Amino acid sequence: MRAEVALVLKGVDYEKVPQDLSNKSELLLNSNPVYRKVPVLLHNGKAVCESGIIVEYVDEAWPSADGDNLLPADAYGRAMARFWADFVDKKVFDALLGTLKASKGTEEEKAAAEENAVAVMSTLEEALMKGKGGEGPFFGGARMGLVDVMLVPLLVWLPAFEELAQLSLPWANKLPRLEAWFAASKAHPSTAVLPEPPKVSEFAIKVFLPRFAN
Amino acid sequence: MPSSDQVQVLNTWLSMFGLRVVIALKAKGVHYEYLEQDLQNKSQLLLESNPIHKKIPVLIHNGKPVCESLIILKYIDEAWPSADASFLPKDPYDRAVTLFWADYIDKKMYDAGSRIIRSPDAEQRDQGKKDFIEVLETLDGALGDVFGGGPFFGGQSIGFVDIALAPFLCWFEVYEALGEFKVWEAAKCPLLSKWAEAVWEVPCVKEALSIAPPHKLVEFVQAMRKKMQAGS
After folding, report:
1. What is the CATH number of the domain that holds A162?
2. A interface mutation test: which of B100, B106, B109, B138 has the most A CBs within 10 A?
Protein backbone atom coordinates (compact mmCIF):
# COMPACT_ATOMS: atom_id res chain seq x y z
CA MET A 1 0.00 0.00 0.00
CA ARG A 2 2.76 2.41 1.01
CA ALA A 3 4.75 1.86 -2.18
CA GLU A 4 1.68 2.46 -4.34
CA VAL A 5 0.64 5.63 -2.56
CA ALA A 6 4.20 6.98 -2.84
CA LEU A 7 4.22 6.31 -6.59
CA VAL A 8 0.81 7.96 -7.06
CA LEU A 9 1.96 11.01 -5.09
CA LYS A 10 4.91 11.32 -7.43
CA GLY A 11 2.80 10.80 -10.52
CA VAL A 12 4.74 7.69 -11.54
CA ASP A 13 3.09 5.12 -13.79
CA TYR A 14 3.40 1.63 -12.44
CA GLU A 15 2.14 -1.89 -12.96
CA LYS A 16 0.70 -3.72 -10.01
CA VAL A 17 1.67 -7.39 -9.97
CA PRO A 18 -0.42 -9.17 -7.31
CA GLN A 19 1.39 -11.99 -5.58
CA ASP A 20 0.10 -15.24 -4.17
CA LEU A 21 2.05 -15.49 -0.94
CA SER A 22 1.02 -19.10 -0.41
CA ASN A 23 2.66 -19.97 -3.73
CA LYS A 24 5.49 -17.53 -4.26
CA SER A 25 6.44 -16.63 -7.79
CA GLU A 26 9.90 -16.92 -9.32
CA LEU A 27 9.84 -13.17 -9.75
CA LEU A 28 9.26 -12.58 -6.04
CA LEU A 29 11.85 -15.13 -4.93
CA ASN A 30 14.45 -13.68 -7.27
CA SER A 31 13.67 -10.07 -6.40
CA ASN A 32 13.65 -10.54 -2.65
CA PRO A 33 15.73 -13.63 -1.88
CA VAL A 34 16.55 -12.49 1.66
CA TYR A 35 13.01 -12.09 3.00
CA ARG A 36 10.77 -13.42 0.17
CA LYS A 37 8.19 -10.79 1.14
CA VAL A 38 6.18 -8.02 -0.45
CA PRO A 39 6.27 -5.20 -1.21
CA VAL A 40 8.99 -5.16 -3.82
CA LEU A 41 9.45 -2.29 -6.24
CA LEU A 42 11.03 -3.18 -9.56
CA HIS A 43 12.40 -0.16 -11.36
CA ASN A 44 13.76 -1.01 -14.78
CA GLY A 45 14.35 -4.53 -13.50
CA LYS A 46 16.17 -3.53 -10.30
CA ALA A 47 14.54 -4.58 -7.03
CA VAL A 48 14.03 -2.36 -3.97
CA CYS A 49 12.69 -4.08 -0.83
CA GLU A 50 11.27 -3.02 2.56
CA SER A 51 8.48 -0.44 2.43
CA GLY A 52 10.29 2.38 4.26
CA ILE A 53 13.28 2.01 1.95
CA ILE A 54 10.99 1.86 -1.10
CA VAL A 55 9.20 5.09 -0.14
CA GLU A 56 12.47 7.00 0.31
CA TYR A 57 13.77 5.53 -2.94
CA VAL A 58 10.66 6.71 -4.80
CA ASP A 59 11.16 10.16 -3.26
CA GLU A 60 14.76 10.32 -4.52
CA ALA A 61 14.35 8.63 -7.88
CA TRP A 62 11.45 10.91 -8.85
CA PRO A 63 12.12 14.27 -7.21
CA SER A 64 9.06 16.56 -7.32
CA ALA A 65 9.19 19.34 -9.88
CA ASP A 66 8.16 21.94 -7.31
CA GLY A 67 10.78 20.79 -4.82
CA ASP A 68 8.15 19.61 -2.36
CA ASN A 69 9.23 16.05 -1.76
CA LEU A 70 8.05 13.44 0.71
CA LEU A 71 11.02 14.29 2.92
CA PRO A 72 11.93 17.88 3.83
CA ALA A 73 15.21 19.33 2.58
CA ASP A 74 16.86 20.06 5.93
CA ALA A 75 18.79 17.35 7.76
CA TYR A 76 16.95 17.76 11.07
CA GLY A 77 13.51 17.76 9.45
CA ARG A 78 14.49 14.55 7.65
CA ALA A 79 15.65 12.95 10.90
CA MET A 80 12.32 13.83 12.55
CA ALA A 81 10.31 12.45 9.64
CA ARG A 82 12.36 9.24 9.67
CA PHE A 83 11.92 8.94 13.45
CA TRP A 84 8.13 9.08 13.15
CA ALA A 85 8.11 6.79 10.12
CA ASP A 86 10.09 4.30 12.19
CA PHE A 87 7.65 4.70 15.10
CA VAL A 88 4.73 4.03 12.77
CA ASP A 89 6.49 1.00 11.32
CA LYS A 90 7.53 -0.53 14.64
CA LYS A 91 4.79 0.45 17.08
CA VAL A 92 1.47 1.31 15.46
CA PHE A 93 0.60 -1.88 13.63
CA ASP A 94 1.99 -4.05 16.39
CA ALA A 95 -0.24 -2.29 18.91
CA LEU A 96 -3.30 -2.90 16.72
CA LEU A 97 -2.37 -6.51 16.07
CA GLY A 98 -2.06 -6.79 19.83
CA THR A 99 -5.70 -5.84 20.25
CA LEU A 100 -6.69 -8.46 17.72
CA LYS A 101 -4.67 -11.11 19.51
CA ALA A 102 -6.07 -10.08 22.90
CA SER A 103 -9.63 -10.25 21.58
CA LYS A 104 -9.26 -13.99 22.03
CA GLY A 105 -7.90 -13.62 25.55
CA THR A 106 -8.95 -12.60 29.04
CA GLU A 107 -10.64 -9.32 29.98
CA GLU A 108 -7.38 -8.17 31.53
CA GLU A 109 -5.45 -8.91 28.35
CA LYS A 110 -8.06 -7.08 26.29
CA ALA A 111 -7.89 -4.03 28.55
CA ALA A 112 -4.09 -3.96 28.48
CA ALA A 113 -4.01 -4.28 24.68
CA GLU A 114 -6.55 -1.50 24.23
CA GLU A 115 -4.65 0.73 26.66
CA ASN A 116 -1.48 0.15 24.67
CA ALA A 117 -3.25 0.95 21.40
CA VAL A 118 -4.68 4.17 22.85
CA ALA A 119 -1.23 5.15 24.17
CA VAL A 120 0.39 4.62 20.78
CA MET A 121 -2.34 6.57 18.99
CA SER A 122 -2.05 9.37 21.57
CA THR A 123 1.66 9.57 20.79
CA LEU A 124 0.78 10.04 17.12
CA GLU A 125 -1.73 12.72 18.11
CA GLU A 126 1.06 14.55 19.96
CA ALA A 127 3.36 14.24 16.98
CA LEU A 128 0.70 15.84 14.78
CA MET A 129 0.34 18.62 17.29
CA LYS A 130 4.04 19.41 17.54
CA GLY A 131 5.19 18.73 14.00
CA LYS A 132 5.45 21.61 11.55
CA GLY A 133 4.14 23.93 14.27
CA GLY A 134 0.85 22.10 14.33
CA GLU A 135 0.13 22.90 10.71
CA GLY A 136 -1.83 19.97 9.39
CA PRO A 137 -3.78 17.98 8.53
CA PHE A 138 -0.85 15.76 7.58
CA PHE A 139 2.39 14.93 9.41
CA GLY A 140 3.98 16.53 6.37
CA GLY A 141 1.94 19.70 6.87
CA ALA A 142 -0.46 20.77 4.15
CA ARG A 143 0.82 18.01 1.89
CA MET A 144 1.41 14.31 2.51
CA GLY A 145 4.95 13.34 3.40
CA LEU A 146 6.95 10.28 4.42
CA VAL A 147 5.17 9.69 7.72
CA ASP A 148 1.74 10.02 6.13
CA VAL A 149 2.63 7.47 3.47
CA MET A 150 3.94 5.04 6.11
CA LEU A 151 0.73 5.44 8.12
CA VAL A 152 -1.62 5.06 5.16
CA PRO A 153 -2.34 1.32 5.68
CA LEU A 154 -4.07 2.38 8.90
CA LEU A 155 -6.90 3.72 6.74
CA VAL A 156 -7.83 0.18 5.80
CA TRP A 157 -6.57 -1.78 8.80
CA LEU A 158 -8.07 0.28 11.58
CA PRO A 159 -11.71 -0.27 10.59
CA ALA A 160 -10.93 -3.99 10.34
CA PHE A 161 -9.34 -4.06 13.80
CA GLU A 162 -12.08 -1.92 15.27
CA GLU A 163 -14.62 -4.42 14.05
CA LEU A 164 -12.78 -7.66 14.80
CA ALA A 165 -11.19 -6.65 18.10
CA GLN A 166 -14.09 -4.46 19.15
CA LEU A 167 -11.53 -1.72 19.60
CA SER A 168 -12.92 1.66 20.44
CA LEU A 169 -10.55 4.61 20.32
CA PRO A 170 -11.38 7.92 22.04
CA TRP A 171 -11.48 9.87 18.80
CA ALA A 172 -13.43 12.97 19.74
CA ASN A 173 -12.01 13.27 23.23
CA LYS A 174 -8.35 12.59 22.77
CA LEU A 175 -7.50 12.17 19.11
CA PRO A 176 -9.01 15.09 17.18
CA ARG A 177 -5.97 15.68 14.99
CA LEU A 178 -5.62 12.01 14.18
CA GLU A 179 -9.32 11.96 13.31
CA ALA A 180 -8.73 14.92 10.99
CA TRP A 181 -5.73 13.07 9.50
CA PHE A 182 -7.97 10.12 8.73
CA ALA A 183 -10.54 12.27 6.99
CA ALA A 184 -7.95 14.19 4.97
CA SER A 185 -6.03 11.04 3.98
CA LYS A 186 -9.17 9.18 2.94
CA ALA A 187 -10.21 12.12 0.81
CA HIS A 188 -6.77 12.45 -0.77
CA PRO A 189 -6.66 11.19 -4.37
CA SER A 190 -3.51 9.14 -3.77
CA THR A 191 -5.32 6.81 -1.36
CA ALA A 192 -7.92 5.81 -3.95
CA VAL A 193 -5.59 2.88 -4.77
CA LEU A 194 -6.05 1.31 -1.33
CA PRO A 195 -8.19 -1.83 -0.88
CA GLU A 196 -11.62 -1.58 0.67
CA PRO A 197 -11.86 -2.22 4.43
CA PRO A 198 -14.33 -5.12 4.14
CA LYS A 199 -11.80 -6.97 1.96
CA VAL A 200 -9.19 -6.30 4.63
CA SER A 201 -11.47 -7.63 7.37
CA GLU A 202 -11.91 -10.82 5.38
CA PHE A 203 -8.16 -11.07 5.00
CA ALA A 204 -7.61 -10.46 8.70
CA ILE A 205 -10.11 -13.13 9.58
CA LYS A 206 -8.53 -15.61 7.21
CA VAL A 207 -4.89 -14.90 8.00
CA PHE A 208 -4.46 -13.31 11.41
CA LEU A 209 -7.11 -14.78 13.66
CA PRO A 210 -6.04 -18.39 13.09
CA ARG A 211 -2.53 -17.44 14.19
CA PHE A 212 -3.94 -16.26 17.50
CA ALA A 213 -6.13 -19.32 17.94
CA ASN A 214 -4.01 -20.52 20.85
CA MET B 1 29.71 23.96 10.41
CA PRO B 2 32.72 24.86 12.54
CA SER B 3 33.48 25.16 16.24
CA SER B 4 30.21 26.87 17.17
CA ASP B 5 28.57 23.43 16.88
CA GLN B 6 27.59 21.75 20.10
CA VAL B 7 27.41 17.99 19.78
CA GLN B 8 26.69 15.48 22.53
CA VAL B 9 26.33 11.71 22.38
CA LEU B 10 24.27 9.90 24.99
CA ASN B 11 25.36 6.29 25.06
CA THR B 12 26.49 3.34 27.13
CA TRP B 13 29.62 1.34 26.41
CA LEU B 14 27.42 -1.75 26.26
CA SER B 15 25.57 -0.60 23.17
CA MET B 16 26.82 -1.55 19.72
CA PHE B 17 24.23 0.86 18.35
CA GLY B 18 25.80 3.78 20.17
CA LEU B 19 29.27 2.89 18.92
CA ARG B 20 27.93 3.37 15.38
CA VAL B 21 27.33 7.02 16.24
CA VAL B 22 30.84 7.42 17.68
CA ILE B 23 32.45 5.90 14.56
CA ALA B 24 30.39 8.19 12.35
CA LEU B 25 31.30 11.37 14.22
CA LYS B 26 34.99 10.44 14.25
CA ALA B 27 34.86 9.61 10.54
CA LYS B 28 33.55 13.12 9.86
CA GLY B 29 36.02 14.75 12.24
CA VAL B 30 33.22 16.23 14.34
CA HIS B 31 34.04 17.28 17.91
CA TYR B 32 31.58 15.89 20.41
CA GLU B 33 31.04 15.37 24.10
CA TYR B 34 30.50 11.73 25.06
CA LEU B 35 28.10 11.26 27.98
CA GLU B 36 28.03 7.71 29.36
CA GLN B 37 24.52 6.94 30.59
CA ASP B 38 23.32 4.76 33.44
CA LEU B 39 20.30 2.93 32.03
CA GLN B 40 19.25 1.70 35.47
CA ASN B 41 18.94 5.30 36.57
CA LYS B 42 18.10 7.35 33.50
CA SER B 43 19.25 10.93 33.44
CA GLN B 44 16.95 13.92 32.99
CA LEU B 45 18.80 14.71 29.79
CA LEU B 46 18.12 11.26 28.34
CA LEU B 47 14.45 11.29 29.33
CA GLU B 48 13.98 14.73 27.84
CA SER B 49 15.91 13.98 24.66
CA ASN B 50 14.17 10.69 23.92
CA PRO B 51 10.83 10.80 25.72
CA ILE B 52 9.19 8.33 23.34
CA HIS B 53 11.62 5.43 23.61
CA LYS B 54 13.85 6.53 26.54
CA LYS B 55 16.75 4.70 24.88
CA ILE B 56 20.28 5.36 23.76
CA PRO B 57 21.98 6.33 21.58
CA VAL B 58 20.86 9.93 21.27
CA LEU B 59 22.75 12.57 19.34
CA ILE B 60 22.13 16.12 20.49
CA HIS B 61 23.16 18.74 17.95
CA ASN B 62 22.90 22.34 19.14
CA GLY B 63 20.24 21.26 21.62
CA LYS B 64 18.18 19.24 19.14
CA PRO B 65 18.01 15.49 19.75
CA VAL B 66 18.16 12.80 17.06
CA CYS B 67 17.26 9.22 18.05
CA GLU B 68 17.59 5.71 16.55
CA SER B 69 21.12 4.81 15.47
CA LEU B 70 20.59 4.41 11.72
CA ILE B 71 18.57 7.62 11.62
CA ILE B 72 21.44 9.31 13.49
CA LEU B 73 23.94 7.96 10.93
CA LYS B 74 21.91 9.43 8.06
CA TYR B 75 21.65 12.71 9.95
CA ILE B 76 25.41 12.87 10.57
CA ASP B 77 26.04 12.16 6.90
CA GLU B 78 23.67 14.95 5.85
CA ALA B 79 24.49 17.53 8.53
CA TRP B 80 28.26 17.25 7.91
CA PRO B 81 28.45 16.55 4.20
CA SER B 82 31.92 15.89 2.90
CA ALA B 83 32.99 14.70 -0.49
CA ASP B 84 35.55 12.23 0.80
CA ALA B 85 33.73 10.89 3.87
CA SER B 86 30.23 10.22 2.59
CA PHE B 87 28.55 7.20 4.17
CA LEU B 88 25.97 6.61 1.46
CA PRO B 89 26.36 6.36 -2.31
CA LYS B 90 24.97 9.15 -4.50
CA ASP B 91 22.81 6.98 -6.73
CA PRO B 92 19.30 6.38 -5.28
CA TYR B 93 19.31 2.69 -6.18
CA ASP B 94 22.71 2.07 -4.62
CA ARG B 95 21.53 3.94 -1.54
CA ALA B 96 18.42 1.77 -1.30
CA VAL B 97 20.56 -1.38 -1.50
CA THR B 98 22.97 -0.07 1.15
CA LEU B 99 20.07 0.86 3.45
CA PHE B 100 18.52 -2.57 2.91
CA TRP B 101 21.62 -4.30 4.23
CA ALA B 102 21.98 -1.95 7.20
CA ASP B 103 18.34 -2.68 8.00
CA TYR B 104 19.04 -6.43 7.65
CA ILE B 105 21.78 -6.13 10.26
CA ASP B 106 19.36 -4.30 12.55
CA LYS B 107 16.65 -6.91 12.11
CA LYS B 108 18.80 -10.04 12.42
CA MET B 109 22.18 -9.61 14.05
CA TYR B 110 21.27 -8.23 17.47
CA ASP B 111 18.44 -10.69 17.97
CA ALA B 112 20.52 -13.76 17.12
CA GLY B 113 23.42 -12.55 19.27
CA SER B 114 21.08 -11.79 22.17
CA ARG B 115 19.72 -15.29 22.04
CA ILE B 116 23.23 -16.70 22.38
CA ILE B 117 23.70 -14.58 25.50
CA ARG B 118 20.29 -14.73 27.11
CA SER B 119 18.76 -18.07 26.22
CA PRO B 120 17.69 -19.98 29.31
CA ASP B 121 18.47 -23.35 27.76
CA ALA B 122 21.01 -24.95 25.44
CA GLU B 123 18.46 -25.62 22.70
CA GLN B 124 17.50 -21.97 22.28
CA ARG B 125 21.14 -20.93 22.54
CA ASP B 126 22.08 -23.35 19.78
CA GLN B 127 19.31 -21.96 17.62
CA GLY B 128 20.67 -18.47 18.32
CA LYS B 129 24.10 -19.67 17.26
CA LYS B 130 22.74 -21.20 14.06
CA ASP B 131 20.86 -18.02 13.20
CA PHE B 132 23.88 -15.88 14.01
CA ILE B 133 26.10 -17.94 11.72
CA GLU B 134 23.47 -17.73 8.98
CA VAL B 135 23.42 -13.93 9.30
CA LEU B 136 27.22 -13.77 8.96
CA GLU B 137 27.19 -16.05 5.94
CA THR B 138 24.45 -13.99 4.32
CA LEU B 139 26.47 -10.83 4.91
CA ASP B 140 29.55 -12.54 3.49
CA GLY B 141 27.53 -13.36 0.37
CA ALA B 142 26.32 -9.79 0.11
CA LEU B 143 29.84 -8.41 0.49
CA GLY B 144 30.85 -10.50 -2.49
CA ASP B 145 27.78 -10.32 -4.71
CA VAL B 146 26.45 -6.86 -3.96
CA PHE B 147 29.33 -4.78 -2.65
CA GLY B 148 32.12 -5.78 -4.99
CA GLY B 149 34.05 -8.04 -2.64
CA GLY B 150 35.48 -5.41 -0.31
CA PRO B 151 37.71 -4.64 1.46
CA PHE B 152 34.73 -2.75 2.86
CA PHE B 153 31.00 -2.71 2.14
CA GLY B 154 31.60 0.91 1.21
CA GLY B 155 34.31 -0.13 -1.26
CA GLN B 156 37.80 1.22 -0.66
CA SER B 157 36.67 3.15 2.40
CA ILE B 158 34.08 2.50 5.09
CA GLY B 159 30.44 3.37 4.48
CA PHE B 160 27.03 3.01 6.02
CA VAL B 161 26.97 -0.79 6.30
CA ASP B 162 30.52 -0.95 7.68
CA ILE B 163 29.59 1.55 10.40
CA ALA B 164 26.37 -0.35 11.16
CA LEU B 165 28.16 -3.68 11.47
CA ALA B 166 31.60 -2.96 12.94
CA PRO B 167 30.51 -2.46 16.59
CA PHE B 168 29.11 -5.99 16.74
CA LEU B 169 32.70 -7.23 16.43
CA CYS B 170 33.28 -6.19 20.05
CA TRP B 171 30.64 -8.71 21.07
CA PHE B 172 31.99 -11.69 19.11
CA GLU B 173 34.13 -12.82 22.05
CA VAL B 174 31.03 -12.74 24.27
CA TYR B 175 29.09 -14.86 21.77
CA GLU B 176 32.06 -17.22 21.51
CA ALA B 177 32.42 -17.58 25.26
CA LEU B 178 28.74 -18.27 25.87
CA GLY B 179 28.08 -20.20 22.71
CA GLU B 180 31.27 -22.25 23.02
CA PHE B 181 32.38 -21.79 19.45
CA LYS B 182 34.79 -19.81 17.32
CA VAL B 183 32.94 -17.45 15.00
CA TRP B 184 35.29 -17.61 12.02
CA GLU B 185 35.63 -21.39 12.27
CA ALA B 186 31.91 -22.03 12.49
CA ALA B 187 30.86 -19.50 9.84
CA LYS B 188 32.06 -19.87 6.27
CA CYS B 189 32.91 -16.25 5.62
CA PRO B 190 36.07 -15.84 3.57
CA LEU B 191 35.29 -12.22 2.72
CA LEU B 192 33.67 -11.13 5.98
CA SER B 193 36.50 -12.50 8.13
CA LYS B 194 38.96 -10.41 6.11
CA TRP B 195 36.59 -7.46 6.44
CA ALA B 196 36.58 -7.86 10.22
CA GLU B 197 40.37 -7.58 10.38
CA ALA B 198 40.50 -4.65 7.96
CA VAL B 199 37.70 -2.60 9.50
CA TRP B 200 39.11 -2.83 12.98
CA GLU B 201 42.29 -1.16 11.75
CA VAL B 202 40.50 1.88 10.36
CA PRO B 203 41.48 4.65 12.84
CA CYS B 204 37.99 6.00 13.57
CA VAL B 205 36.68 2.47 14.05
CA LYS B 206 39.59 1.40 16.25
CA GLU B 207 39.15 4.47 18.45
CA ALA B 208 35.40 3.99 18.77
CA LEU B 209 35.57 0.27 19.50
CA SER B 210 38.14 0.91 22.23
CA ILE B 211 35.18 2.13 24.29
CA ALA B 212 33.98 -1.49 24.50
CA PRO B 213 37.01 -3.80 24.68
CA PRO B 214 35.92 -7.40 24.03
CA HIS B 215 37.54 -8.87 27.13
CA LYS B 216 35.77 -6.28 29.31
CA LEU B 217 32.45 -7.15 27.71
CA VAL B 218 33.06 -10.83 28.42
CA GLU B 219 33.88 -10.04 32.07
CA PHE B 220 30.78 -7.87 32.34
CA VAL B 221 28.41 -10.43 30.86
CA GLN B 222 29.85 -13.25 32.93
CA ALA B 223 29.53 -11.18 36.09
CA MET B 224 25.92 -10.35 35.21
CA ARG B 225 25.09 -13.99 34.65
CA LYS B 226 26.62 -14.98 37.99
CA LYS B 227 24.58 -12.27 39.70
CA MET B 228 21.38 -13.42 38.03
CA GLN B 229 21.99 -17.05 38.87
CA ALA B 230 22.82 -16.19 42.48
CA GLY B 231 19.94 -13.74 42.81
CA SER B 232 17.29 -16.19 41.63
Report:
1. 1.20.1050.10
2. B100
Give tens-digit pLDDT for B2-32.
568 999 999 999 999 999 999 999 999 999 9
Query: Between chains, do B100 and A79 touch, taking CB under 8 Å as contact?
Result: no
d(CA B217, CA B170): 8
Q: Does A205 lie in the same domain as A124?
A: yes
Both A48 and A142 in one domain: the answer is: no
What distances in angstroms separate CA B140 from CA A74, B145, B153, B171, B191, one per listed residue? 35, 9, 10, 18, 6
Please indicate if any CB of chain A lies within 8 Å of the CB of B130: no
Reported for A33-39, long-range contacts at CB under 8 A and 24+ positions apart, including other chains, are: A34/B100, A34/B104, A34/B138, A39/A2, A39/A3
Residues A123 and A190 in one domain: yes
Q: Quickly count: other Cβ atoms within 10 Å of residue A211's Cβ.
A: 10
Give residue A143's domain range. Answer: 75-212
CB-based contacts of B15, cutoff 8 Å, min separation 6: B56, B57
Q: Is residue A68 part of a domain?
A: no
For residue A159, tell me if it sits in a domain: yes
Looking at the 3D structure of chain A, how many domains does it have? 2
> CATH number of the domain that A40 lies in?
3.40.30.10
A83 neighbourhood in chain B, CB within 8 Å: 66-68, 71
How many residue contacts between A and B have a Cβ separation below 8 Å? Answer: 56
Please tell me the distance from the alpha carbon of residue A116 to that of residue A191, in angstroms, as a whole number: 27
Which residues on adjacent β-strands are paired with residue A43?
A46
Chain B residue with minimum CA distance to A85: B71
Per-residue pLDDT of chain A (214 residues; tens, 9 = 90+): 999 999 999 999 999 999 998 899 999 999 999 999 999 999 999 999 999 999 999 999 999 988 889 999 999 999 999 999 999 999 998 999 899 889 888 999 999 999 999 999 999 999 998 876 578 899 999 999 999 999 999 998 888 888 888 888 888 788 999 999 999 999 999 999 998 877 777 777 777 767 665 4
Residue A67 lies in a domain: no
Quick check: B1 contacting A, CB < 8 Å? Answer: no
Residue B20, chain A, CB below 8 Å: the answer is no
How far off is chain A from B220, nearest CA to CA, in Å? 30
Is the ipTM reported for this complex over the cut 0.90? yes
Runs of H (alpha helix) within B168-213: 172-179, 183-186, 190-200, 203-209
Q: Distances from the Cα of A175 to the Cαs of A110, A123, A124, A142, in angstroms?
A: 21, 10, 9, 19
Residues A44 and A88 in one domain: no
